Amino acid sequence: MDWFTEHSTLIQTVTSIATAFIWLFYLQMLFSGLLRQRRPTLSINRGAGDGMDAKIILSNLGYEPIYVQDVLVTMDIEGDGESTHYVTDRRELPDEERTKGLRGTTQGPMKSGDYASLGTVRGILQRAAPDYDVDKLPGLNRVTFTVLGTGQKAAGARKSYRIVSDDQSIKHLSAEALDTEILSPRQSRHVHEDQGPDV
Questions:
Q1: I want to staple 173 with a disulfide (CB 3.0 to 4.6 A). Which of 87, 108, 148, 161 is the partner?
Q2: First vs last Cα of the chain: how many Å apart?
Q3: What is the model's pTM?
Q4: Measured between alpha carbons, how far is 44 from 160 in angstroms, rounded to an integer?
């Protein structure tokens, strides 16, 4: 007891410092959680169909609404390299379908928890390569879907699929990774700047 009495000032100082570190740790955790909640989180997945008829589904898994602005597809074709195309407008739909409300575009707002179809794999590839029979694109090795949007900040997501095909046609797409790559605001702006506006 005498030791505690003699060193009470030191003990109080050490206790105060330890308490301050504990509060700083909890504040940092709280701040990190708030930042994660406000970060746009988009998910791109294949579903609702098989092969070329499968739909590419975009989901907003973030806590904030987001406005989908641009959709791009990058095709890696053997011998030709990579080429990126805007596929925001659904040009593969008949005219009467495209003029019904916003059915002719993949642009638009998405609330937290919302999801939307970007179109079938066949339809998206037709938008990117209208002069080809997309069921038999020769040498197509990989396709990458990229979505750019705006919310509190610029947002974006990207996911790549390997093409599984035989000598006759494309059979299906196989995701290269389970998760969608979330683009930072800077990366999203760079993609937009590299591609230029969708005119």
A1: 161
A2: 81
A3: 0.74
A4: 10
Which of the listed ranges 6-15, 31-40, 53-62, 97-106 does the model predict with the highest average pLDDT? 53-62
Cβ burial 39-58 (10 Å sphere, 16+ → b, else e): bbbbbbbbeeeebbebbbeb
In this structure, the strands spanning 115-120 and 81-86 are unpaired
CB atoms within 10 A of CB 172: 17
List pLDDT tens digits, range 10-29.
777 878 788 888 887 777 77
Q: Where are the alpha helices (DSSP H) in 48-153?
A: 95-98, 121-128
CA angle 50, 167, 133 (to 5 degrees): 65
- The span from the CA of 164 to the CA of 171, in Å, is 6
Which of 152, 163, 159 is closest to 40 using CA atoms? 152
Distance, CA of 7 to CA of 72 (rounded, Å): 68
